[in-house]
Specification:
Helices cover 32% and strands 17% of the residues. It is an alpha/beta fold and 156 residues long.
Length: 156
């Protein structure tokens, strides 16, 4: 892919293995990974590299110190922001992705901060879960699923 079709964004990721796995997916799909600090780990940790294997060096990675610096640098439109949360009222299949979308995921234990839901309530989507036995899905699995749905919608 020559142009950036979309980006995966991790807001305050806590588990290095998930970040490494998501980075590997990004390399496979030719998309960038954006990380917003703080992290629950050091980006240089062996567990991040192990999950990303030897692909990590090929990752198009951007890091931001906070949400505001992400907004200032990326300058996304409201319509380009897609926040993933189990508390969303809209399923991923109702979302209409477009080029230059940002698929945004929160930390594994806390999810996305409340101020984002207050500011962008219409931009929240979820992956459907039909069992009451499951509290949440793994972050790496969710991000990969969302990335492939976005690719499908963009006909890439």
């Amino acid at each position: 892919m020559h142009k950036k079709p979309f980006s995966l964004v991790l807001h305050n990721p806590e588990i290095p293995g998930n970040t490494g796995s998501i980075g590997r997916t990004c390399v496979a799909l030719g998309i960038e990974l954006i990380l917003i600090k703080p992290y629950g780990f050091e980006i240089s940790e062996k567990s991040v590299r192990r999950a990303g294997l030897d692909y990590w060096k090929h990752l198009n990675l951007k890091e931001y110190s906070n949400w505001e610096s992400f907004l200032d640098s990326e300058k996304p439109t409201r319509e380009s922001l897609f926040f993933f949360s189990k508390k969303a009222s809209k399923h991923i299949f109702q979302a209409q992705f477009h080029p230059k979308s940002y698929l945004i995921f929160g930390s594994e234990t806390k999810g996305l901060p409340g101020f984002l839901r207050e500011e962008f309530p219409e931009n929240f989507v979820e992956l459907p879960m039909f069992s009451s036995q499951i509290r949440s899905l793994n972050l790496a699995n969710t991000a990969t699923t969302a990335a492939y749905e976005c690719l499908r919608q963009l006909n890439l």
